[in-house]
Amino acid sequence: MAGLCIKYSTGLIDLQLIPNMAESTNMDELLQSFKKFAIHGDTKATGKEMNGKNWAKLCKDCKVIDGKTVTGTDVDIVFTKVKAKTSRVITYEEFQKALEQLAPKRFKGQSKEEALQSIYKLIEGKEPTNVGVTKVAKTAAVDRLTDTSKYTGSHKERFDESGKGKGKGGREELVEHTGYVAAYKNAGSYEEKTKAK
After folding, report:
1. Which one-letter DSSP state was computed for residue 159?
2. How many angstroms separate the CA atoms of 36 and 95, rounded?
3. What is the pTM of this model?
4. Tens-digit pLDDT profile for residues 33-53
5. Which of 6, 23, 91, 150 has a 20 to 30 Å separation from 83 between CA atoms?
6. For residues 52 and 88, is the Cβ–Cβ distance under 8 A?
7. How far apart, in whole angstroms, are the C-alpha atoms of residue 98 and residue 83?
8. Where are the alpha helices (DSSP H) in the chain?
């Protein structure tokens, strides 16, 4: 994209096309967003190609999908149109073509160029969100079920007084060759009782 700039030289007006630096930095931010969404959820991804799932996530997270003018189905159709026939991913150039197709639909009252700039602004600098990811439940029922002080029977023996698990000692029946019955609470007290008499 180039902006029109007026340059004065020797009293005459000289028109030159000078690249607009703001637009080039915006395109860099768009590329960075593309790369972040392209590698999201895939450890083997290089960031040069984006699959359909990540394309749909980008459109949803960046509010390209508004549920009225642009839906998830529209996004999937555009993805299918711009990708190569045998391919399952799109490149950055195909990504830009897809945005060009979605822009007039998303921003109906604007010209094609204004709509494209508006859709770029939605995506620039954004990265994948983790909204809706399962969180640890903290309810009274869960607290009650995981409170080791309320455990009874054989389950109680798997934890010490502080609630920390005993590990293998709490799971397996370890034989102690002391002469006492297993889990006898007064083990080792026989000598003390006989000395006291």
Report:
1. B
2. 13
3. 0.56
4. 899 889 988 888 888 999 999
5. 23
6. yes
7. 9
8. 21-39, 52-61, 72-82, 92-106, 112-123, 140-146, 153-156, 168-171, 190-196
